[in-house]
Amino acid sequence: MAVRRLRAVTILGAAGAFLLxxxxxxxxxxxxxxSHVLSTFGAYKYKPDFKHFDYVNPNAPKGGTIRIGGFGTYxxxxxxxxxxxxxxxxxxxxxxxFEGARDEPLVSYGMIAxxxxxxxxxxxxxxxxxxxxxxxxxxxxxxxxxVYSFVTQKAxxxxxxxxxxxxxxxxxxxxxxxxxxxxxxxxxxxxDITAQLTILPKHYWEGTDASGKKRDIAATTLEPPLGSGPxxxxxxxxxxxxxxERVEDHWARDLPIMKGRNNFDEVQIVYFRDRxxxxxxxxxxxxxxxSENSAKRWxxxxxxxxxxxxxxxxxxxxxxxxxxxAAFVFNSRRPKFSDPRVRRAFNHAFDFxxxxxxxxxxxxxxxGSYFAGSELAAKGLPEGLELEILEKLRGQIPxxxxxxxxxxxxxxxxxxxxxxxxAALRLFKAAGWVIxxxxxxxxxxxxxxxxxxxxxxxxSERIILPYKRSLDRLGIKVTVRTVDSSQYQNRLENFDFxxxxxxxxxxxxxGNEQRDFWGTAAADRKGSRNWVGIKNPAIDKLxxxxxxxxxxxxxxxxxxxxxxxxxWNHYVVPNWYFNGxxxxxxxxxxxxxxxxxxxxxxxxxxxxxxxxxxALKGN
Length: 619
Description:
CATH architecture of the largest domain: 3-Layer(aba) Sandwich
Number of strands: 26
Radius of gyration: 25 Å
Structural class: alpha+beta
Shape: globular
CATH superfamily of the largest domain: Periplasmic binding protein-like II
Number of domains: 2
Strand content: 15-25%
Low-confidence stretches: 1-28
Helix content: 25-40%
Strand order of the largest sheet: 1-6-7-9-8
Number of helices: 18
CATH topology of the largest domain: D-Maltodextrin-Binding Protein, domain 2
């Protein structure tokens, strides 16, 4: 997977804001020896003697507090197991072997590991750990910690087990060296995904807590864990907040990769169960930064005195990241949603144009690809290498793939809406569903078509309700159920739903994670992200073609081919995207002059500006 590990993703704003993109030139496979960088296709920006990333202020002062709103809650601080709901910000206390840069593609640099080496066939990777790397208790980070972290995480969560399934062994090969061995060759991504591994302290998890009780890494816990990152847990108030304090003597503070980052003395995450209440807390000055996911609130809720006076700044930060696929996601394991014609009919019933105008203030673009807004998105008709790849699957994939560019139904006026309505009825009828006494029923069984939309945010209800009215006209019984985030996650992981409003983030170098999204082996594996339940041999072949691409040209062609096949199987009703992160902030922070193109963040780049803070207090 080409998603580089960047801390505290879930509290930084827009989904996918941490994903990286690339257009590197193809290179021949060759051995890598003691390199400070891992690059999927060879190109990279920062040389071994680099001083700092270009998108930070290396002289940023340390100090101050930043208060951020979090939605939902947490009931555990153990993030590597299925049980419990850990705060997304817990990544602040950990480090990985290598870490990605936000201003270049498909590249990561040494963090806990100083260098990486691998043979030309990508059959293994070896890391040399930094001798100064240590845990917050002063003990060194060892190869034993790395091996323990790999074995433990692979055994603790089905997603980790699947993600690392081609990594068959981790072993200590020297006093400060660890090697990962793979069960296949030619997979350029395998060294990189081991580099992302969160490293855990073996001695801590195999030890005892303050009461003398042996710790259990397979259990939930609210004991602040031991980490090695720039922050440690300071205080927890389950259901209310969690705060982190900067580790002043952090072992990596002088590394070039860390210069100008992690500038706040304290990071506070305050939890809310209602986003409107969260916005009011921000306006009242109880929060410093607000990442806004609602077009309506962005357009209407921030016109208050402090904003008009310039004390609060609204800003959209854009990147070149792919937007992925956000959608109404069907559970095709349920017989009523197993027919693509039924799923396509639901798309004809969704009026995006009305929704965008009346609910979203025309801020969104309709999603027409699983890699929207990127060079990986399929466009026009397939040609060249992409067509060659698809021809090998002819007869196994929809014929439309070769004949027509995928387009969502449009409803720009009343006539188009009526046409979409009639098209939906034709599709239902072809799939065996007919209208009887204004009710849509199965022609053979008499079963009524019913659909429950499962949500975890009340914000989503205003989107679903107009859609519900359209589906009601088709004789479909629709219910909307909003549950708390923990229950939602549990039902999602157990595939206990009809339709959810969800999606898949993407990078511009897709790889092993696609198996978890769409692969047959993931369809019945609880906890996978194949929420749709896709079992399609043609898609499995396309995923492998992506993973084993020999150069960027092949990767692009294979991904576009898969994009077409996914779209023409109508697994989802595509939603919309906004290319950027909407951020409102109280004007008490300093910002670097340069924003990275491939990963927006504020938590590890901004700093507390005392001069601005004092000016605010004077108003």
